[in-house]
């Protein structure tokens, strides 16, 4: 069996997964609060190359055959804080996520603080998910109490009336979060409880951009293309050599 063909084919599969990750980062790089998808490469040993063709399989000084494997993840490094001068835009300094209520009643988590008021005067995200307070309830403004003000620690007030505090939570293990699209995350393990940040630091009039570096992603695409081309050439060469060997054997 020509192990090299299988190794090169496995390399092509790994490169395709890398390309999928890079493409997603480029396409979502302008979404506020989006976190870069990452990929790591490692090898797994499957079988062994036997230098002595007369030796019994599995004996002697066989060399392990390595095949590439990939592991994807998410980088939760904070993105750049971008000024907007919009009073309903917020960026979290340090660790933490805003909590939102999803249509099925469950909670989602996001770093995107690009908020607005719904027709019912409830504070919601750009996808119209209600933002939850520390108490776990939506924050609704009163029609007659005037403009809203928000302190640096997330306390929401109208005049002398405090309506609650914008809830910010964190996780000891962010690998428990799974992306659901548009910078939103959900818990894949319902037994995990978010930890409330008692005194969050919110920057009003700012949003957090994605942590994607477009230039790095474009460089990665070039690297992928070159590696893909090299592996294709290896496969072609090995296939031609195998064909010649079969012809010689008659």
Quick description:
With 250 residues, this protein is α+β, with helices and mostly antiparallel strands.
Q: How would you portray this structure in words?
A:
- With 250 residues, this protein is α+β, with helices and mostly antiparallel strands.
- It has 2 domains: 3-77 and 212-249, no CATH class; 81-208, no CATH class.
- The protein is 25% helix and 33% strand.
- It contains 2 helices and 17 strands.
- The protein has helices at 3-28, 214-249, and strands spanning 37-49, 63-74, 81-83, 89-93, 97-101, 107-110, 113-117, 123-125, 148-150, 155-158, 161-165, 168-170, 177-181, 184-187, 195-196, 201-204, 206-208.
- It has a 6-stranded antiparallel beta sheet, with no helix packed on it.
- A hairpin with a 4-residue loop joins strand 9 and strand 10.
- The longest helix is centred in the last third of the chain and has 36 residues, at 214-249.
- It is elongated and about 95 Å long.
- The two termini are 18 Å apart.
Biggest sheet statistics: 6 strands, antiparallel
State Rg: 26 Å
**Spatial sequence of strands, sheet with the most strands:** 13-14-6-5-12-15
Helix percentage range: 10-25%
Mean pLDDT: 88
Order of helices and strands: HEEEEEEEEEEEEEEEEEH
Tell me the number of helical segments per DSSP (H or I, 4 or more residues long).
2
What's the domain count? 2
Low-confidence stretches: none
Number-wise, the strands total 17
Based on Cα principal axes, name the global outline.
elongated
How big a fraction of the residues is strand?
25-35%
Spatial gap, N to C terminus: 18 Å
Category by helix and strand content:
alpha+beta
